[in-house]
Amino acid sequence: RLNCIRNNVWLASCGVLSAGLAVLSSFGLLLFCGVPFVVTVANAPFLILGVGVDDMFIMIAAWEQSLRRKEKSNVKSLLAETYSEAALSVTITTLTDVLAFFIGTWTAFPSVRSFCLYTGTAFVFCYIYTMTFFGAVLVLNHKREQGSRHWLTCMPVGEGDGQAESCLYNACCIGSCSGHSSQPDSEHPMSIFFKKYYGPFFTNKWIKPLVVLLYGAYLGGSIYGCIQIREGIDLRNLASDNSYVAPFYDDNEEYFSEYGPRVMVVITESVDYWNETVRLGIENCTQNLE
């Protein structure tokens, strides 16, 4: 927002910080408990960041709607209504994510088990921080707006402050070129677009069959892609960093990768290796194969 009071840059930054705290808390707890850390776990923070930011947008949207409906209400009732609308969505999405990753801990691969355990635990902490830490940040940000304080410096903004200064100085340090109102803004243009144009367009009786056809084409393409997909995985990533398998795959890739797959011959019968004639026969067989 261009309004120097209603700008929520710090609020968004705290939403990202909330996801970061969840990652630190979950990783610290599991490392303290001795859960092995493998290289695939390093991808987990990106998943947590995506879900944490999504929860942040849900909370902020519910808070803005509560402000528009109850401009004169106290903070307690505003926060209660925000949680009543947003907490259900956040809880359901978190439960499904946690359930999916904890089911993944049943796998036989230790690296996948560690990844699922770290990620699922991080989702739990992300939910806790969203419901506690970020809710408190919403209230503090609201009090800053009610006090007509600048979004960056938190300094009080007066009606006549910075009139002699440049527009850039006013926007970043003291005031704003677009007004100083701390009251809730009118409905966001994006919300108006979806409500007045996007929604009615897709509920049109001529558009509905087109949407069904497009979804059918998408579904058919997805099924075809699943049938044609070829599995492939770096076996090195499936082993723990301290496993004896890790240096084997490293050396195999460095020294033997250009020779292709190894060919092995297995003798399944009982053989008298003490007999020199038998040993010579095995040697001759090996030379013939070579």
The parts where pLDDT drops under 50 for at least 5 residues are none
The DSSP helix count reads 9
Q: What overall geometry do the principal axes of the alpha carbons give?
A: elongated
Helix content: 55-70%
Please report the distance between the alpha carbons of the first and last residues: 74 Å
One letter per element, helices H and strands E, the order comes to: HHHHHHHHH
Detailed description of the structure:
- By secondary structure, the protein is mainly alpha-helical.
- It has a domain at about 10-175.
- The protein is built from nine helices and no strands.
- The longest helix is centred in the middle third of the chain and has 37 residues, at about 110-145.
- It is elongated and about 105 Å long.
- It starts with 8 loop residues before the first helix and ends with a helix.
Key phrases:
mainly alpha; 290 residues
Write a brief caption for the model.
With 290 residues, the chain is mainly α. It is 63% helix and 0% strand. It contains nine helices and no strands.
Question: What's the arrangement of secondary structure elements?
Answer:
Blueprint: H1 9-32, H2 44-69, H3 75-103, H4 110-146, H5 167-172, H6 189-202, H7 207-228, H8 245-255, H9 276-289
Helix pairs in contact: 1-2, 1-4, 2-3, 2-4, 3-4
